[in-house]
Amino acid sequence: MAHQCNAICDEDIVRSLVSKKRPDLAAKFDRYLLESYIEDNRMVKWCPSTPHCGNAIRAEDDKLCEVECSCGLQFCFSCLCQAHSPCSCLMWELWRKKCRDESETINWITVHTKLCPKCYKPVEKNGGCNLVRCICGQCFCWLCGGATGSDHTYRSIAGHSCGRYQDDKEKQMERAKRDLNRYTHYHHRYKAHTDSSKLEDKLRDTIHEKVSKSEKRELKLKDFSWVTNGLDRLFRSRRVLSYSYAFAYYMFGEEMFKDEMTPEEREIKKNLFEDQQQQLESNVEKLSQFLEEPFDEFSNDKVMAIRIQIINLSVAVDTLCKKMYECIENDLLGSLQLGIHNISPYRSKGIEQAAQFYASWNSKDADKFQPLDSGTSGVTSRPEQASGSRSSEDTICSSSQKRPKKEGSFLNNKVTLLDLNLPADFVDQN
């Protein structure tokens, strides 16, 4: 920093000079160097776990992907929310907000209550008479909402007539009621599959106990990997089904793609999607039913029969998931003019788990990186583990806080070895 000095002071020199007198300052420099690299690189992001695990993940080929950190959190690399395909990032953000805020409560109030003309508090009708009395004492007509006196009969209110039709008000109420019923339909099914997934998560321990008992029995069949594979398939397909209802709510509604499709086109595409959704739903329920069978108590022939059923259903569910994603990518989102809605690709083996690598602090050792575990690809691909994963809706979606330094980095599939403590230009050159 001296005037007219051409000497370059790189990270190694800064560390050697500062660490002698101020080791704490050298550690702070290293931490800021790491954080500045991650914040400046769109393809490297912190894991959004809470509390933070200290891991960073790099995606090399595609920013639009879902990844599982070594801490167990599965998240979307693009928006840092929980893994949400087949929803696009924008759809998922709107759905979370809709489920979280009071928008549907307001819709319910609009449909089922009327405002008092005196205190303007919502009043719900609890009887058959159209003369309603608010807690403030004001009487008003339930049909039109106008203030009245208290004299009335069952058929009429003294000095009051509201037989004139008000078109705008009636249309507004009908629209609010229709929107509420539509949201309730999709949210009920989304919640049902989410709750089923949480209950089926407890199946893992039960399945392991059944497998352990079966292996101790003198059966012809010794390999029970088809059970755990079927369970993993059930978890993945249940998650896809759950988020498919959030996708359908926006895809076939009028708030996003009103100008992109005619009502006739929307109805055709809706029927096409719902047919595939129902086929997937039916097979997922059958798979769940067979996995809950007490196969550890069955005879040889019955165990072989249920094995064939679970394997066939697992293959069928996987195929139906692929077809649904192809339908969404090609027939639904692919035909839109606005290309802002993209989804992460479907993976039969589940969300890819990032692999951990050793990262050296010294640039002179940059060519000597070795992964912690054996293998040449530098990638550890494991099936999605539902019991060990954290995908809560309370996960933060963005963060600007400074993280503690973490030795090493985590990478998803098809990535190069990376030391996050090196400057971006060095990494790009290597």
UniProtKB/TrEMBL annotation:
Provide the species name: Arabidopsis thaliana
GO annotation (BP), single: protein ubiquitination
Q: In which pathway does it act?
A: Protein modification; protein ubiquitination
Keyword set includes Cell cycle? no
Q: Which cofactor does it need?
A: Zn(2+)
**Family label:** Belongs to the RBR family. Ariadne subfamily.
Q: Name one Pfam family in it.
A: IBR
Q: Map out region (Disordered) in residue numbers.
A: 369-408
Q: Which residues form the RING-type domain?
A: 1-166
Task: List the keywords (alphabetical).
Answer: Metal-binding, Repeat, Transferase, Ubl conjugation pathway, Zinc, Zinc-finger
What ranges does the record list as Polar residues composition bias? Answer: 373-401
> What's the Enzyme Commission number for this chain?
2.3.2.31
Q: Report the catalytic activity.
A: [E2 ubiquitin-conjugating enzyme]-S-ubiquitinyl-L-cysteine + [acceptor protein]-L-lysine = [E2 ubiquitin-conjugating enzyme]-L-cysteine + [acceptor protein]-N(6)-ubiquitinyl-L-lysine
Q: What is this protein called?
A: RBR-type E3 ubiquitin transferase
Alphabetized GO MF terms? ubiquitin protein ligase activity; zinc ion binding
